[in-house]
Amino acid sequence: MTTELTYASTSTSTSEIRNEDKKIIQHVELPEVINELSITLRLNIQNHNPDWACVFHKGEDVHEARTPALWLTPKNSAPHPRFSVTNNWNEGINSVGSGLSLNRWYHLAYTLSDSEKRLDFYIDGKWIGFHSVQQVQTQQIIFNHEPLYIGADKIRSGFTGQIGYNKL
């Protein structure tokens, strides 16, 4: 069963993501995820952050639960999609490309499948990268019961720009 969370546009802010676009969605408010999920959203970066910036992250602690998670790398805003598996809380793609250009809308898609043991990442409908679980017999993707943070989490600030998503 695939669960799909779709995020697509409302913000017109040209500074840091608006507070009304930052969300904390409790686990019980989200669709049930059994072994697959996909998240789509629109993103427009106005300035590159000097530190890591959170786009979305499901989990209370970045060192324990990262399924699903998407951060932007410091200084160039390259997507950094992550997830957690048995015995490793930090799996994923280190960075996608050389970074997102400023003041341009991107459509991002993050798909994750425990049955296929892989994460796929798309930008503007193009398959950009993937990460496969290495120990397919012994490792499972961990879908946690923690809140989903959109736009910022407890550890990392948000990015400077706009995010578009449908309200859940």
Question: What does this molecule look like?
Answer:
This protein is an all-beta fold and 168 residues long. It has one domain: Jelly Rolls. 0% of the residues lie in helices and 43% in strands. The strands form 2 sheets. Strands 1, 3, 8, 9, 10 and 12 form a 6-stranded mixed sheet that branches. It is globular, with a radius of gyration of 15 Å. The relative contact order is 0.31. Residues 1-15 have low confidence and may be disordered.
Quick recap:
The protein has strands at residues 2-6, 23-25, 36-47, 53-58, 69-72, 79-85, 88-92, 105-113, 118-123, 126-132, 148-150, 160-164. With 168 residues, the chain is mostly beta strands. It holds the Pfam family Laminin_G_3.
